[in-house]
Every structure is written in C-alpha cells, then in structure tokens.
Design a protein that fits this description.
single chain, 268 residues, alpha/beta, four-stranded antiparallel β-sheet, 8 helices
Length: 268
C-alpha cells in the first residue's frame, strides 16, 4: 500500500448558525510525512474532529489548503485514497463482518481495491477476525466491531487512514490491546495514519509526531516529536523517553504552571 504526505497549511473554518458565527479553526497548520503516524490532541471543542473531517473532504475550509501527496483532499477522496474510522464502528447490523468489509467495494462498483489491495478476507485476517467472517456485529465485542470497521476502512487501499477517537468507548485494557493491534495493522499496511484522541498517553504511545491544539479557535500550537523506536511495546509506556514526550505534550496543553506535572504510572 502506498502512502501520502499530508500538509495542512493555514486552514480556517467558521460555522454559521442561528447565533453568532463560531470560529472553529483559525490558520491551523501541520505536516505529516508519508507513511508516518500522527496524533492530534487538544481540549474539547478545539476543532480536532473538524480538522479530520476537512482532510476527509467531509467539510470544506474557508481559507487555507490541504494537500495529500500534492493533491487536494477532493482529488484524493475521488480516488478513494482516504479511509476514515469513526469513534463508533457504524457497522450495518444485518450484514456479516465480511459483508460489512465488502460494502465500500459494492458502493464504488469494484470487486477489489486499487492495485495491490488486500482482499476483504485478507483484511479480516489482518485485523485478527479470521473465523468471524459470518458473524453479525451484534455477536461481536466492541473491540472486535472496531477491528471490522478498520478493515472496512482499508478495503479500498487508502493512502491515508483517519481515525477519530476509534477506541474512546472501550475499557482501558481493551483500548491498550487495540492500540497495539492498530500499530501492527498500520505497519503492515504502510499507510499514513492520523489519529484524534483525548489521551496524552495514547497520543505519545501511538504517534511519531503529536500535534497539540489550542482551545477554540483551534490552531496547532505545538508539534512534539516522539523519539521512540518501532515497533512500540507496552514496556515502553514506562520508559523515561515516553514520559518526557508526554510531559512535553502536557506542557503544550496546560502550560508550565510551576506545579508538579510529571506524568507517572498512575496517570496512564
């Protein structure tokens, strides 16, 4: 699978409703190299999910530009080069796992994704659901449903995978397992990945580059480079390097108040 560099350059967006206009994003910029894993973190309402939807061409910016490997997000979407995983799996309850994974192919009228794409059966095996191809979503755990949603997002062989808090509804044990599974899937697929999360620990553990957003109007206030080798392991969650990156993200979110702010094991 190929990957694309993502460049967001001074993007702004204003929502107009019945009340006063709401400036959701104000000149937000970030860059993520092709094949990289990035994470966006920030306070509630800062525009994290809005930024992801702009990249996916679900929303259009009022100003600025978004480029995926030199193309606009509209061009990338039309080529089915963007995969999106939402917080809720949104699987069709009357379709089996295999039928849900095959659904994007049916919508675009294809029997397979772009050149070199894994088949639906291969993707189901990749996400660890082999043997559950004929199961209905209601017969699966929350983590298994999200695995199926990830497989569905990859079936058209996207160059970039967007993930909007995909594990936010899971318990902590399942969430950590799913983090490891997602990293394995990402490494094997070779796609660029951008994750929105509220968790400092998750952002630092998953990503090579963490984008810290300011309160609304949202902009990328800081970029934190995570200096950890890959593959990531749970043992790294106790490493000094991970704590240092987590504290850098925490300082970007809350500022240096002079009060103790070091991340410790209990805060994970």
């Amino acid at each position: 699978m190929s990957s694309r560099e993502l460049v967001i350059d001074r993007v702004s967006l204003v929502f107009h409703g019945r009340g006063d206009p709401v400036i959701a994003l104000d000149s937000a910029s970030l860059a993520l190299p092709g094949g990289g894993f990035g994470a966006i973190i920030g306070p509630s309402g800062c525009g994290k999910s809005t930024l992801l939807r702009l990249v996916a061409d679900i929303l259009r910016p009022d100003a600025g530009s978004i480029r995926l490997g030199g193309q606009t997000q509209r061009q990338a979407r039309q080529e089915h080069a963007i995969g999106f995983v939402f917080q809720q799996p949104t699987l069709l309850p009357w379709r089996s796992v295999l039928q849900n994974v095959e659904l994007p192919l049916a919508i675009v009228g294809r029997r397979s994704g772009r050149g070199g794409a894994l088949s639906p059966a291969e993707l189901i095996e990749l996400v660890g659901l082999k043997g559950f191809e004929n199961a209905l979503p209601g017969e699966l755990s929350g983590g298994m449903q999200q695995r199926a949603a990830i497989a569905r997002a990859l079936v058209l062989r996207p160059d970039i995978l967007l993930l909007d808090e995909p594990f936010g509804a899971l318990d902590e044990i399942t969430r950590q397992r799913m983090n490891l599974e997602l990293l394995r899937i990402w490494a094997e697929s070779g796609t660029t990945a951008l994750l929105v999360t509220h968790s400092i620990a998750e952002a630092v553990f998953m990503a090579d580059r963490v984008f810290v957003m300011s309160p609304r109007p949202g902009r990328v206030a800081q970029t934190v480079e995570v200096a950890l080798p890959r593959p990531r392991t749970l043992e790294m969650m106790r490493s000094p390097e991970l704590f240092a990156s987590a504290n850098e993200v925490r300082d970007g979110l809350f500022g240096r108040t002079g009060h103790p702010s070091a991340v410790n094991a209990e805060s994970w």
